[in-house]
Specification:
Elements (H helix, E strand, L loop, with lengths): L4 E2 L4 E5 L5 E4 L5 H15 L6 E7 L2 E6 L2 E7 L2 E6 L10 H12 L19 H16 L7 E9 L5 E2 L4 H6 L4 E9 L3 H14 L5 H13 L10 H5 L11 H12 L3 E3 L6 E7 H19 L3 E3 L3 E3 L10 E3 L3 E4 L5 E7 L10 H14 L3 E8 L6 E5 L8 E9 L8 H14 L5 H7 L4
């Protein structure tokens, strides 16, 4: 059922997996949105279109977001998609998402790199633009890095070296020399990433001044190929000492690439925006929290597939499980397992989730396992004792609610790190005591 009719505003607020919103189709080019939807679905690995659109007639459509969070601008209309664990009606959801993104995608970018007095005062694209502009002004003052590229050519004069792969051409036309030569260019993966990022941000930011400054960067890089590098190529970009100031701009570009940045068409119904895979963002943020919680307690974490069980009959293969986080103590012994679940917190987790994490605990010999869930208020963890009827060690299973609204506080990350760390060091009751207290039935 639709949540309401948006007639007057140019701002559509959607909740991931929330109720549909009715909006006038006059403000949205459905063809352009459909094309962007296809690109987002493929790039983010989603089973369905991230923004579900249904024409209900009389000039109106319904909109619903699934599996993504982010911002999109179509013409003069902003579509803001809050993660399902945050309230779309509250503007501070963007602050929380921003802080998670800067950790997961940017390696903990400091808020002081923006010119805003507080992070909560800006729209996410404007925050990214502020960081990008500041970094570009600092790092590009001496020009952008250049590199050598190899090209094939031919002529009456040998440039570079003879291209032995084309000797048959030389034999057929001995007066034309095929060659391979290197030339210096500033059309590099970094320059292409910067141009594409500036172009996407210019079409998405709200502040006209920022849009103008970004368009000036695009104009200054007009000679550069406007297609961005592939994500793996962009991740491999390394900056020399002379251009370290561009590091933040590079990170912003990576954030936008991973957010499946799209800018399409121009004019009244231009479309630009960034959508992130919510599940990916949450799982990687939990991994970051666990990594720091482990480090503070002289532990370390890993994430890798574990093969177990032997085939004793039939043609099957060995079984495999891949827990999100495995904690190892100072001696390298696995002691705890966490699986990040991007689902609603429940006092009774789904059977498939508990089977998965209990299997990992049993195979790795970990007496403590946990399922973490995103929430927006403080809630008490729920812990179950899971004894073995086969005489093995019992396991302690905890549903651990991670209150992401703590990120509105200056030390929110530290609070969440300690929350996980306290669970980690709160050792379980000896299994024999538990068996006496909670006998098998």
């Amino acid at each position: 059922m639709a949540s309401g009719l948006n007639l007057t505003g140019r701002r559509i607020k959607l909740q991931e997996y929330g109720e549909t919103v009715v909006h006038s189709s006059a403000d949205i080019d459905l063809r352009v949105l459909d094309e962007a939807n296809r690109r987002w679905r493929i790039k983010l690995g989603l089973p369905n279109s991230p923004i579900r659109v249904k024409n209900i007639g009389n000039g109106y459509v319904t909109l619903r977001a699934e599996g993504v969070t982010g911002v999109v601008r179509i013409g003069d209309t902003d579509i803001e998609i809050a993660p399902k664990f945050l309230d779309a009606a509250e503007d501070n959801w963007q602050t929380v998402l921003w802080r998670i993104l800067t950790i997961v995608e940017g390696g903990l970018i400091d808020d002081t790199q923006t010119t805003a007095s507080t992070v909560s005062s800006l729209f996410i694209p404007d925050l990214l633009a502020d960081m990008f502009l500041s970094s570009y002004a600092k790092g590009a003052s001496r020009g952008l890095p250049r590199s050598y590229l190899t090209e094939q050519g031919e002529g009456n004069i040998l440039l570079g070296q003879l291209d032995t792969s084309r000797l048959n051409e030389w034999i057929a036309r001995p007066w034309i020399l095929p060659y391979v030569s290197d030339f210096l260019t500033d059309d590099t993966p970094l320059a292409r990433l910067l141009r594409w990022s500036a172009e996407c941000l210019a079409a998405t930011v709200k502040a006209p001044g920022r849009a103008r400054a970004l368009r000036e960067i695009v104009a200054g890089l007009a000679h550069v190929n406007k297609r961005p590098p592939q994500i793996l190529e962009a991740q491999s970009i390394h900056l020399g000492l002379q251009h370290t100031g561009l590091e933040t701009a590079r990170i912003v570009g990576l954030m936008l690439l991973d957010g499946a940045g799209v800018q399409h068409a121009a004019g009244e119904h231009r479309l630009a925006g960034f959508l992130w895979n919510s599940n990916y963002i949450y799982e990687n943020y939990v991994y970051w929290l666990c990594e720091r919680a482990a480090s503070k307690r002289n532990h370390r974490i890993t994430k890798s597939s574990v093969t177990f069980a032997q085939v004793i009959k039939g043609k099957g293969t060995r079984l495999k499980t891949t827990p999100d986080v495995v904690f190892h103590n100072a001696n390298g012994v696995a002691v705890a397992v966490i699986d990040a679940k991007y689902k609603n917190f429940s006092l009774r987790p789904k059977a498939s989730d508990t089977y998965q994490v209990l299997t990992a605990g049993h195979v790795l010999g970990c007496p403590r396992v946990s399922l973490t869930y995103p929430v927006d208020i403080d809630q008490e963890p729920t812990t179950w004792h899971v004894p073995s009827a086969l005489g093995g060690e019992s396991i302690e299973l905890t549903a651990l609610p991670i209150n992401l609204m703590k990120l509105l506080k200056p030390k929110g990350n530290e609070d969440l790190i300690d929350f996980i760390g306290n669970w980690l060091i709160d050792f379980p009751i000896p299994s024999q005591t538990l068996l006496e207290t909670y006998p098998l039935r």
